[in-house]
């Protein structure tokens, strides 16, 4: 479904991604693991069109999307939930969800909003509340709900568990699995390697802009290197 081959991404002189190659097959959950500053968010931003690679190729459903505008890429079915769960603070929960569907022209939008409410009952309770006043966990639910409203084929999630209480982390990961079971392919960036590898099929480890290790989630969980660096020994 997605094939990234040898991309280089720069911020001015900073060489943030160095020849990165990854692949995501339809139906998978694939996770990217790495320390702060490794380049995980940079990779997701490049996939969603917020950054342009200098070299290399990005094939999505057998078409090149490298360097295309974000508005073009979202229409092909890639939806990005950025780090820090940015919601429109001065809009209500429901307005944020409606906005998520702005790329769609079909008549199922209201029905899909109801589906999001079924997935996240908390959002239904808070549907008239201004999003800026939601708790962190609720904002993460809203950010994910808004991304789902675009009906993505490929969902890019950047650290959905960041800053959440353990119980909320568990809920968010259950929902990630549900979204995947309902047919959405997922590329998941996480520092919580333990949770990420428990839901993912495969993973890539990124260190200072390079992919240094890849394998099945099972193999990565068993690897001594991963255990000591990312799973707390
Ligand atoms: N706008 C920017 N301008 C300059 N450098 C940047 C910019 N954004 C990111 N970088 C640098 O690029 C590198 C990769 O950053 P990135 O945000 O992709 O890391 P990350 O793996 O997502 O880290 P974290 O886990 O902390 O979110 C870092 O060294 C960072 O300082
Ligand atoms: Mg990041």
SSE blueprint and pairings:
Elements: E1 2-11, E2 14-24, E3 29-33, H1 40-47, E4 55-60, E5 63-64, H2 70-75, E6 78-81, H3 93-100, H4 109-119, H5 121-125, H6 136-149, E7 154-158, H7 166-181, E8 185-190, H8 193-199, E9 202-207, E10 210-216, H9 217-222, H10 224-230
Parallel strand pairs: 3-8, 3-9, 6-7, 7-8
Antiparallel strand pairs: 1-2, 1-4, 4-5, 9-10
Helix pairs in contact: 3-6, 6-7
Bound molecules: adenosine-5'-triphosphate (ATP) and magnesium ion (MG).
Magnesium ion is lined by residues 40-41, 83, 158.
Domain ABC transporter: 2-233
Family: Belongs to the ABC transporter superfamily.
GO molecular function, one term: ATP binding
What's a quick, concise take on this entry?
By secondary structure, the protein is α/β, with parallel strands linked by helices. The protein has helices spanning 40-47, 70-75, 93-100, 109-119, 121-125, 136-149, 166-181, 193-199, 217-222, 224-230; strands spanning 2-11, 14-24, 29-33, 55-60, 63-64, 78-81, 154-158, 185-190, 202-207, 210-216.
């Amino acid at each position: 479904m997605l094939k990234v081959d040898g991309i280089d991404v720069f911020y001015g002189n900073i060489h943030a991604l160095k020849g990165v190659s990854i692949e995501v097959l339809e139906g998978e959950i694939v996770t990217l693991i790495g320390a702060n500053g490794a380049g995980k968010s940079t990779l997701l931003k490049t996939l969603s069109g917020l950054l342009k690679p200098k070299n290399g190729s990005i094939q999505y459903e057998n078409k090149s999307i490298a360097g295309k505008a974000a508005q073009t890429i979202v229409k092909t079915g890639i939806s990005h939930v950025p780090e820090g769960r940015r919601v429109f603070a001065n809009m209500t929960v429901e307005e944020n969800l409606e906005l998520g569907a702005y790329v769609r022209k079909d008549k199922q939008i209201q029905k899909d909003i109801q589906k999001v409410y079924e997935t996240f009952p908390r959002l239904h309770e808070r549907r008239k509340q201004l999003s800026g006043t939601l708790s962190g966990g609720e904002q993460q639910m809203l950010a994910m709900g808004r991304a789902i409203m675009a009906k993505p084929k490929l969902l890019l999630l950047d650290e959905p568990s960041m800053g959440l209480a353990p119980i909320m982390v568990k809920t968010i990961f259950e929902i990630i699995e549900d979204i995947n079971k309902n047919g959405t392919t997922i590329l998941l960036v996480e520092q919580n390697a333990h949770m990420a590898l428990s839901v993912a099929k495969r993973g890539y480890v990124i260190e200072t802009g390079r992919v240094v290790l890849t394998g099945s989630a099972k193999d990565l969980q068993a690897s001594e290197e991963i255990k000591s660096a990312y799973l707390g020994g």
